[in-house]
Amino acid sequence: MTQANTLNDTLQFGLFDWIEWDKSAPHDIFENRLKMLEYADRAGFYSYHLAEHHITPLSVSPSPSVFLAAAAQRTSRLRLGPLVFLLPFYNPIRLYHEICMLDNLSNGRLDLGVGRGVSPVEAEKFDVDLEISWDVFNEQMDLFTTGFSTGAFNHHGKHYDYEDIELWIKPFQKPYPPLWYASNNLETVPWMAQHGFNTCHVFADNAATKEHYDLYKQVWNAERMSDGLNSHVAVPKLGLVRHVYVANTDEQARSECREAFQAWFHNINFLWEKAGYDFLNFIRDFDDLEPREIVITGSPETVREKVQRAIDETGINYFCPILAWGDLTPDQVMRSMGLFADEVMPNLRPGTS
């Protein structure tokens, strides 16, 4: 069996989330999400991935560590992680300790998503220069991976200078938690594959996702580094993120979530529109995205067919639905999630690509 084939031999399911503002009291939003994760823990989902965003209705959880620490106490099997921590937005010493605390509080269930950020408005408010954020990101990764193994920061670099900083805590998982990096940028794929990063692809049709992961597999099979950042993970997860809504019938599902999608788009587009950008217009129209199966809705049978088609056509080994989005009510979310867990997940199989 070749390495490339091993990437298609298994299939697991995660959850992706932003925890959007929905006019409820924040404590109710958080409690409803924690109940959702308690169910996900019982239902066999692999991991919960929480995005980091700031000063936007897209996220009322701009400090992922805080929410994930609470989730760790309400679950026992579900893995948990940011997708992603925006490294240039943090002091490295503080974030190092938050990572180690989360991994220990969850008894080794942390999935460590890392990135540099793409929103110019958010970056500006944090005095982050996106022009140099890649350099900052790489320097922080050097700091963290060395710190995880040595328990100290001794680093003299372009952006950070530390001498004999004793850290006193290490991750629960050895040498450190599995690394994730989310990107739709084809130019980033070789770097991800060389290091064997777990990853997710979003907001693209099946053909574009296949191109993305065909390149990943080619590079991973030929050029993966034995000492790469994620080399301790034998088989990386290649994920696909999709908005998903399941109801009793196709018509019910489509009608119940069409307006919810518009609420979600308002939230994700809020800062871009405020700054005068039209960067996200390509995901504005539910009635364009749903027929192309970039948004997946329908009865359990229809959703199963669409998800299986996505698996087969893209070559993923990890399907990561967004089940709570826009202004879907908690009852709608839990009904959809129950149908997905009971009638869709058990009937899906690894892909053929």
Summarize the structure.
The chain is an alpha/beta fold and 353 residues long. The protein is 44% helix and 16% strand. The model has no long low-confidence stretch (mean pLDDT 96).
- Residue share in β-strands: 15-25%
For the record, give the distance between the C-alpha atoms at the N and C termini, rounded to a whole number.
Answer: 15 Å
Shape: globular
- Tally the beta strands: 12
Residues in helix, %:
40-55%
The assigned structural class equals alpha/beta
Largest sheet: 7 strands, parallel
Radius of gyration: 20 Å
Please count the helical segments. 12
Instruction: Catalogue the unreliable spans.
Output: none
Overall average residue pLDDT = 96
* Element string (H = helix, E = strand): HEHEHEEHEHHEEEHEHEHHEHEH
Please, could you describe this protein's structure?
- With 353 residues, the chain is an alpha/beta fold.
- It is 44% helix and 16% strand.
- It has helices at residues 3-6, 26-43, 64-74, 92-105, 120-125, 133-150, 189-195, 206-223, 250-274, 286-289, 300-314, 330-344, and strands at residues 12-17, 47-50, 79-82, 85-86, 112-115, 152-156, 161-166, 179-180, 199-202, 238-246, 295-298, 318-322.
- The strands form three sheets. Strands 1, 2, 3, 9, 10, 11 and 12 form a seven-stranded parallel beta sheet that branches. A three-stranded parallel beta sheet has the order 4-5-8, with no helix packed on it. It has a two-stranded antiparallel sheet with strand order 6-7.
- Helix 7 (189-195) packs across helix 8.
- The longest helix is centred in the C-terminal third of the chain and has 25 residues, at 250-274.
- It is globular, with a radius of gyration of 20 Å.
- It starts with a helix and ends in a 9-residue tail after the last helix.
- The model has no long low-confidence stretch (mean pLDDT 96).
